[in-house]
Design a protein that fits this description.
Order of helices and strands: EHEHEEEEEHEHEHEEEEEEH
Largest sheet: 7 strands, mixed
Low-confidence stretches: 313-321
Radius of gyration: 20 Å
Number of helices: 6
Helix content: 10-25%
CATH topology of the largest domain: FAD/NAD(P)-binding domain
Mean pLDDT: 89
CATH class of the largest domain: Alpha Beta
Structural class: alpha/beta
CATH architecture of the largest domain: 3-Layer(bba) Sandwich
Strand content: 25-35%
Number of domains: 2
CATH superfamily of the largest domain: FAD/NAD(P)-binding domain
């Protein structure tokens, strides 16, 4: 495996869903150096889909996570490198371009944004008010501030499980809240979470409010199974990993053109207003949300990026139609 923090990739793809995984497959097959920043198999929309029955070439029903895992294995077989990190900022105007992650800075000659539309517009009451004062979206960034304290993690994705496990190394107690009784995440890691002595699971519980004065002091939550009404729990920090339906673009810091609906604007080759920067999948909002269409976007952008990098008007390889 390459040292991802000490090289310049030909392409960095932000997001490992069907759009990003397909782009990685096509770009790697064109013998480009490809890195994919990805937060986990069940972080995006496809990974949390229980059954798919209409994906071309797949007979019968298949789980979304299983289909996505196959796509990723294909991309990796061509040489694409998956990097378990989260993009928190970018410099798209420089050369090389830079993606800032929790673990370091990744440099590339071109960027493909494939972060999807799992962002949230409906926040938990108190979430915005206490952001930076006990509310966080990044355990790697902030866990050390909660050493020997009690914290809550809210979510049901691989990212939420990973972050809870990381926090457990610092916090006295980690309360893990998931809205459903079951979580569609990596089974081995979830078993590890269950077996961690300072983690308390609250499955089927919904956090209704984050409360405090100057900083977070506790949460109010509803255990739907117990039927006991709202309960109060004292915590010093709340780490939120919930998903919604808003395009995820905050890490781009206003460098790309965005529509009034919050969608990235692209041309027919999925290139944004900055040459060498592409956007694909649900983040561009140009179609119905289907995995096969997102995959098509990924192929288009990878072919366009290869042409742009080579400075050619025609793609250098036979794309195997």
């Amino acid at each position: 495996m390459t040292d991802s923090l000490n090289q310049v990739y030909d392409v960095i793809i932000i997001g490992g869903g069907p759009a990003g995984a397909t782009a990685a497959m096509y770009a790697a097959r064109a013998e480009l150096e490809v890195g994919i920043l990805d937060k986990g198999l069940t972080t995006g929309a496809l990974g949390t889909t229980s059954k798919i029955a209409n994906y071309p070439g797949v007979e019968g029903e298949i789980g979304g996570a299983e289909l996505l895992q196959t796509m990723r294995e294909q991309a990796a077989a061509f040489g694409a490198e998956f990097i378990n990190d989260k993009a928190i900022g970018t410099d798209l105007l420089g050369q090389p371009k830079a993606v800032f992650g929790n673990l370091g800075v990744y440099n590339a000659r071109s960027i493909i944004v494939a972060t999807g539309s799992m962002g949230r517009s409906n926040l938990i009451k108190g979430e915005a008010e206490f952001l930076g004062r006990g509310v966080s979206y990044c355990a790697v960034c902030d866990a050390a501030f909660f050493k020997d304290k009690d914290v809550a993690v809210i979510g049901k994705s691989d990212e939420a499980v990973d972050e809870a496990l990381y926090l457990a190394r610092f916090a006295r107690t980690v309360h893990f809240f998931a809205p459903g009784k079951e979580v569609n995440v990596n089974e081995e890691e979830f078993d590890g979470l269950q077996g961690t002595g300072n983690v308390v699971l609250h499955l089927g519980s919904i956090v209704k409010e984050i409360v405090g004065e100057e900083k977070v002091e506790g949460i109010r939550f509803l255990d739907r199974e117990a039927g006991t009404g709202e309960e109060y729990l004292e915590v010093d920090g709340v780490f939120v990993y919930l998903q919604g339906g808003k395009p995820i673009t905050d890490f781009l810091q206003g460098q790309l053109e965005i529509s009034s609906e919050g969608c990235l604007q692209v041309d027919r080759e999925n290139q944004t207003n900055i040459p060498g920067v592409y956007a694909i999948g649900d983040v561009i909002c140009t179609h119905v949300k289907q995995a096969v269409i997102a995959a098509g976007d990924g192929a288009i952008a990878a072919i366009a990026a290869e042409k742009w990098l080579r400075g050619k008007s025609k793609a250098r390889v036979d794309w195997g139609e």
